[in-house]
Amino acid sequence: MPLSRVEGVASRQAHCDLPAGTYEREMSKEGFFGPAAFFHHRHPPTGWTNFEGPLQPRALDLTRLAAMPGSPWSATEILANAHCRVRYWQLADSMERLARNADGDELLFVHQGSGHLHCDFGHLEFAAGDYVMLPRGTLWRLEVTAPVALLLIESTNASYMLPERGLAGPHAIFDPAMLDTPRIDEAFMAQQSSTREWQVEVKRRGAISLITYPFNPLDAIGWHGELAPVRLNVRDIRPLMSHRYHLPPSAHSTFLSARFVVCTFVPRPFETDPKALKVPFFHNNDDYDEVIFYHAGDFFSRDNIHPGMLTYHPAGFTHGPHPKALTRMFEQTKPATDEYAVMIDTRDPLDVTDAGHALEWPGYVDSWKGK
Ligand SMILES: [Fe+2]
Fold this sequence. Notes:
The protein has 371 residues and is mainly β. The chain has helices at 186-191, 323-326, 354-357; strands at 23-28, 36-41, 58-61, 76-80, 84-91, 98-101, 104-119, 122-127, 130-134, 139-156, 198-204, 207-213, 230-233, 253-256, 260-265, 282-285, 289-298, 309-313, 338-346, 351-352.
């Protein structure tokens, strides 16, 4: 329904020129891509005194999980729906078996550690801050050089794609040439000399099948095609920003799936225009559930959040900056943000697993109190 109206005392430019003493709230469709309304409230919309029921925002401390056996299919599932599964995996030693996900593409985000990926396509090193996207069906294993902690994001029954860059052009945010792919190199050829029996754990419909080979199946000597795993480090992302306008999270889209999007928050300068908002606006992102995994730095709009934590805001309630961050709504004390975080916004509601609930910090829902 194309319309644009201004009613009562209101700004005509989103996230700027707010009437004195008011707090802006955005009510928006399609995850900040669609129609929206911007309200100017007398009170912060997160100023609740009590919040009960299943819609509560959750904060989970994934660092409380212990190291797990060396299979991605033993990783702890935290959140899931029919289109997206989020697991956390801490791996101290190299994988003894090969893995194959027959349910969907797998996006690994390396929170800590380093090592080598060997897969159908060859060899690729990885380190903290890397995304590694493994197309569905890829046979793979990890060799660990420093204990790794990984966030696994499965795109169930769908493929990962790159987002449209629109007006910013195809080389903005990160140039597609920055995507690294595995190489048939010396290290890959050397691992082919293994003469032991190899087993493959295939996950299909959530169940594991074990296939045994008398040889190493990672024995390709070459390949060609348009399909391959890709690696991208968060430090190679050059964020979009405007000195006069607080861009919505959708500007930080990194990977798209059919029913969810993965965005990356990386350090960027604060807006400098005195009338532009310098913190995330209050919003109810009513079409999407929102998940943020905190990788590194100081997450500037949240209190009591440390690296390795994950927050989950189901669609349906208004959220926004914590009270301390809100005091810097128009004036920041630092020139730039210092945060790396992975955001997953899903079009369909997610369920928190029992293992996820066990990691919950129950005080999170009350952490907006105080103003
Ligand atoms: Fe949000």
